Amino acid sequence: MKKLLVVLALSFTALFAKPNVVILATGGTIAGSASSQLDTAYTSGTITVDAIIAAVPQLKDIANIKGEQVSNIGSQAMTNEIWLKLSKRVNELLKRKDVDGIVITHGTDTLEATAYFLDLTIKSDKPVVLVGAMRNSSSMSADGPLNIYNAVSVAINKESKAKGVLVAMNDKIHAAREVQKTNTTAVDTFQSPNTGAIGSVFYGNVKYYLAPVRAHTKKSEFDVSKLNELPQVDIIYAHANDNASIIDYLIKNGSKGIISVGMGNGSLYPDSQNLLEEAVSKGIKVVRSSRVGSGEVTLNGETNDEKSGFIVADNLSPAKARVLLMLALTKTNDTAKIQQMYFKY
Description:
14 strands, Rossmann fold, 10 helices, alpha/beta, about 20% strand
């Protein structure tokens, strides 16, 4: 009888126990502050993760929250080293039975790239949710607190499992691969131009309507657990009357890969194409992406990619094309295999 009561007590506790969420803070506007509520000039990364959590006391009603400070920077200063540190820490935490989900606070400038990097390197089905803010913590109508509450709500929702890394911003849930920052200042800046949001979160009420289909997390082949650096991959932006000299500079200064942000369907200025073909001949991988903002760059479209030795980014944004190429180069230098990765991930 005593054993039965113990079992029942444990079952009752488990049934009503709140989930455990770790908030990893990296800085950004969500951790920024200004001199007044209407001051548009502010400093990113001025408040700590503990202050962020304290600003949303309602979190304790839905989850057991712990916080860790990974970095405290404006996300325009994000580095490969911080990406590797963050990925390793998330993987460590998600192996623990007492961690049910992770929320990462992040600046909005590079949030989408960090989300995609984690989407390709996290080895767990448990929810990982990135969140930021477009208005700093001292701003009138700051959007950070509700965004954080919603992000934690997404992280503890059972339907968030196995959907890859997610971004929760402005009442929407986006897949890491698809989301892009589309406006410099608007609170609804994060959109998924090619697919749309996969769900919504309204004051903690989570609903899903779609699910990512490209490979991610546990189905990804990329493992950064033993890496301390990533290959140098650079981005160049195409335009009319292009000056191709920057390509020559990259060829001579250690670039292992170049993402060309082309015109239209990834089109290249003739001089640029010639130098990019030279880069390929020297072993540098060249990926054609587009500056348009949505749509895919088609293989062998206006450019004969197979002849030139180019790779196409499919419909990945240039920033995410760079992320994938860096990781691809940790696995292979085979152009055909890397091209298949752009169609897989």
